């Protein structure tokens, strides 16, 4: 490990800004905010990464989006704060590599090198500052990329990050066109690795990706290198996040737990998605993240942190369990059949239900238009619920079907979602692409849907919908139909949950 001092030059006219030269000569614009109340004492430091396409936060008075930690909150917690413009964004040079450990991860190590030589920074020993990391989305992914290869990081709290860009951006080999195109618009003035733009062009042209794009995104982790993450990790994921879904956080959490890394996980109503239901108040991203930094970076053993797993349901009721998954209850099951016409009209989304004002934020304006909603053109299967149940986990769907579609370049897909017919909301805004073979022959498959967290009342019903199109994903090949001769759905239930707060 190269822990030598890294060169950074002050930026004229901006007292907080420095231009840091990273390992490959890329110039990274960093923003340094030492704790103003330190009064000559040393302080631990938190690195706070921005979202995709954004520059590092420089506001010492405004709150961060999505309830994330702000510089002012970290100051009040007794921390120095370092933010930065990731390579390719803002005033940094280079090209964005989507939080690659070999690029952005090494940039963070260069920042830690520089940080270790600054006045007022608490050190464990020379070259090793006491340091943690927070941030959302792209600012969450960088935490894994950095912690995988720099042992000087004491704790991380990645929020709405991913496990694999192949399972998140290309779920079941189906590109998430709604969010993919939003992300490219957000980064329209940035410098990107050419593989990123090539993948988007191919997606919009053919509805698919090729082996080169898949390999590129797969290498942007953190799935393949989580075994190197050994620091306490707080995973915060959004129940209504339809870009980096709950499955992404679960995969990270379970991998860390299995190898003995200290890890906890909480689900809040937010993320890359719109909260259409009651968000509750028990699971707050900023409070949980700050406590994590105080406990594991500042080493304050009196601070209580989340242990295990917690989530909020659609009513604002929060539950907790010692670990994930919680013990399973008896899964409600239903069967049905029907024929789906493969046409563009009547697909899933956008919704007509308004965003919950309590949870509203700037992400809603872009997320709303790619959010699933009850579809008019669908095969509908009613799911009667004969007892109270908390649904936590991935519904399983089994299909026996046959169908045909015209020849063409686009993939053949249908999409499954669970709808609450009373509220008119897709449960947790989640929709799952299902690859189907439309050659006129009979086929059978069983596949997990996206994970949900929902409280069901005895006597109520939910509706399973199989739909032809959605605003969330690419438009598949259309023009034929699919006859589902047998449909079975199992809903996951959890037991032995503790209620943290009633909605």
Can you give a write-up of this model?
By secondary structure, the protein is α+β, with helices and mostly antiparallel strands. Helix content is 18%, strand content 29%. It has 10 helices and 24 strands. It is globular, with a radius of gyration of 23 Å. A hairpin with a 5-residue loop joins strand 2 and strand 3.
Low-confidence segments:
none
- Going across the biggest sheet, name each strand in turn: 1-2-3-5-4-8-9-10-11-12-13-24
Radius of gyration: 23 Å
Distance between the termini: 49 Å
Count the helices. How many? 10
What's the overall average pLDDT, rounded? Answer: 96
Based on secondary structure, the structural category is: alpha+beta
Task: Work out the strand percent.
Answer: 25-35%
Please tell me what the overall shape is.
globular
- Which quaternary structure do these chains form? single chain
Q: Sheet with the most strands?
A: 12 strands, mixed
Structure summary, number of beta strands: 24
Helix fraction bin: 10-25%
Key features?
single chain; 503 residues; alpha+beta; twelve-stranded mixed sheet; four-stranded antiparallel sheet; 10 helices; 24 strands; 18% helix; globular
In short:
By secondary structure, this protein is α+β, with helices and mostly antiparallel strands. It is built from ten helices and 24 strands.
Topology:
Blueprint: E1 8-10, E2 17-21, E3 27-33, E4 45-49, H1 71-76, E5 80-84, H2 104-115, E6 123-125, E7 128-129, E8 131-136, H3 138-147, E9 153-159, H4 165-168, H5 177-186, H6 194-206, H7 211-218, E10 233-238, H8 246-258, E11 263-268, H9 285-296, E12 309-312, E13 318-321, E14 333-341, H10 364-367, E15 378-384, E16 389-393, E17 396-404, E18 413-420, E19 425-435, E20 443-448, E21 452-456, E22 461-467, E23 481-490, E24 498-501
Parallel strand pairs: 4-5, 4-8, 8-9, 9-10, 10-11, 11-12
Antiparallel strand pairs: 1-2, 2-3, 3-5, 6-7, 12-13, 13-24, 14-23, 15-22, 16-21, 17-20, 17-23, 18-19, 18-22
Helix pairs in contact: 2-3, 5-6
